[in-house]
Amino acid sequence: MSDLHTELKKSIIEQLNLEDMEVSDIENDEHLFGDGLGLDSIDALELIVLLEKDYGIKLTDPNQGKEIFNSVNTIADFIEKNRAK
Amino acid sequence: MKGVAVTGMGIISAIGRNLNENHLSLKNAKNGITNPEILSTQHSHLPVGEIKLSNAELATILNLPENHSYTRSALLAVHSVKELLENSGYDQFPEGTGFISGTSIGGIDKTEQHFYDYSENPEYRKYIQAQHPGFTTEKIAEYFGLNGFVTTISTACSSSANAIMMGAQMIQSGKLKRVIVGGSDCLTKFTLNGFNSLKILSEEKSLPFDDDRAGLNLGEAAGYLLLEAEEYTSGRSVLGRVSGYGNANDAFHQTASSENGEGAFKAISKALNKAGLSGSDINFINAHGTGTRNNDLSESVALQRIFGKNIPAFSSTKGFTGHTLGAAGAVEAIFSLLSIQYGEIYPNLNFKTSMKETGLDPVTSIQNKEINTILSNSFGFGGNCTSLIFKKDE
Amino acid sequence: MMSKELSIKNSLIIRESRVFRNGELIFEADQGLSTTKFLKKVYNDQKLKYSKFFKMDELSKLGYLGTEILTNGSIEDKETALVFANSASSLETDVAFAQTMEEFPSPSLFVYTLPNIMLGEISIRHQLRSENIFFISEEFDPLLFIDYTTALFQQEKVENVLCGWVNLHNNDYDVFLWKIANSGGMEFNEEELKKLYLPTHE
User: The Carrier domain covers which part of the protein (chain A) (predicted)?
Assistant: First the structure.
């Protein structure tokens, strides 16, 4: 697992107040929304903030989030390609 | 059921500083949506329904001393309650007049302006207490010498609709004889940033019920109604009656509405039931219709569930005023009473394409016809859904 | 007065690191804990499993926990109305959100900048699609609850009402919940409410 994956899992747990979860509980390819981790629409908005704050990536269209936030893997890929910091 | 008499009204919004100006704008399909000019914000590209009077100008109109501690919400409220008093036929509010005011943000406008100044600039400290939402209500009550039953309701965007419902209930249960009900909310950086963070603000003028709708425009307003028990109405003009009301929780999400519009469905059902009416008795619906993807679809589904294929003429007036949050219920109650008074249906501005999911079309140009019964919807965050029914006085 | 026929079925208090149900101390933690830490201790002590809890702001957590404990986790009458009030509105979360505004306004904080979101959380948890209202008053005002609740019963809108005073300001929380029904409990009047709210001041 790359540092970025671990870092992302840590921030997701912290930013989204997933109090009862640990980094090892989240699989890289696990669905974050729906029947996976069960995140909701507000979590998706908070992930958009996280991308901007930590990686300098601004999502212009919130609908893009649907694909990007599919799993930790997809977020990591997107960050690798687009990061500004 | 006769319903509770409305014997006075007052309003200030982005489309007018009094009833007459608001009525003319509605009639002429003239919206009040512009970029922010009075509110200083970095989001100056986001259209809002702003009242083009600074706090200083409002204070001058209201003859307040220079060192007053009225928040903008309080200034707007006092402005509209003054108009209500003038057209109620009273010189001053009789002893025991109650006051129920709804707000979603209270005095946050002053807090955010002076938050960092409190320690260095003692002259701003008078506003510290103003952040308490009850403070704004107390200020308004103080201005008019209202010392009876006074309370503040905070249920987000249904606050003032709930104030109307509560006032009607208290008159019907004999607790109060006379009560001013309504609400006031002003534009703030707080709400602009907040709604923006939820990505539900449109960068263009809002398109309620349109397939291409992209969010709401925030607005500011104050609107108040005087409700009176039957024994005080003889010889006075009754502008209309509150004949039904219902409140229900959507129990779905903190801010989003459910797909089947369950909360809205229940609120409307309760209001019809209270008024002793069936769906076919409703002549017109003043919808909540904020212009967000979520609300307008959920509300449309609720309307379909209640009215089936025979949905009455409906429109959202948010395209005129923006979404005035806690004041919206009272503003739209007043618009409903104007509809009844003048026999006019006001259009849903900016509408072009019906939603794919429902195919419903709101009213798009002014219509003249006799209106006896109007349903007005106000739905708030926290799942709080309120529906009111207004009837012509007969 | 109709209120004479109404009864207070049960009550709950959370303040100063203690939880009382019907006047009896059922949980106590160390004094001086932060609100967040104390609430987590109550959550664990009650063996609750509701992951949404950790996403709530402190005000909603207080309302949620109070309701769980008072009702033993079950509200049978889904038409039970919620009549709540406090003094500080959602001020704690308002300030927290305002602090994020300068850089990255937080949507998950903004969502909780209204006190009635707590009622939404309780309604979601118990699937209540009932009437609810939230008042702001300077201090606990028994008459406001009595007037509103009495009107609900008079209009035959409800058979049960859950009332609540849930205030939070500067890490100082004050929760008082009680249930009102047509019969079977203490008389629902100002005096009894005051006694239940401030038992130490008798």
Answer: 2-83
- Our CA-based measurement puts residue A78 at a distance from the nearest CA of chain B, in whole angstroms, of 21
Cα-to-chain-centroid distance, residue C53: 15
The total number of residues written for chain B in this structure: 394
What predicted TM-score, i.e. pTM, was given to this entire model? 0.95
Could you read off the pLDDT of B200-227 as tens digits, one per residue? 999 999 999 999 999 999 999 999 999 9
Instruction: Give the closest-approach CA distance of A45 to chain B in angstroms.
Output: 7
Contact A41 B254 (CB under 8 A): no
CB contact under 8 A, A49 and B253: no
d(CA C25, nearest CA chain B) in Å = 31
Enumerate the domain spans of chain C.
2-201
Alpha helices in B32-185 (DSSP H): 55-61, 72-88, 108-114, 133-143, 159-172
Structure token digits, residue B108: 């946050």
Contact across the interface for C120 and B112, Cβ inside 8 Å:
no
- In a 13 Å sphere around the CA of B345, the CA atoms on its Cβ side amount to 27
Domain extents in chain B: 4-391
Q: Which fold has domain C2-201?
A: Peroxisomal Thiolase; Chain A, domain 1 (3.40.47)
pLDDT digits (tens, 9 = 90+) for C12-41: 999 999 999 999 999 999 998 999 999 999
Local structure of B392: helix, strand or coil: coil
A18 in reach of chain C (CB within 8 A): yes
Strands B284-286 and B313-315, by their bridges, are parallel
Residue C57's CB is within 10 A of a number of other CB atoms, namely: 22
Question: Neighbours of C (≥3 Cβ pairs closer than 8 A)?
Answer: A, B
Looking at domain B4-391, its CATH superfamily turns out to be Thiolase/Chalcone synthase (3.40.47.10)
Find out if CATH 1.10.1200.10 is the number for domain A3-18+27-82.
Answer: yes
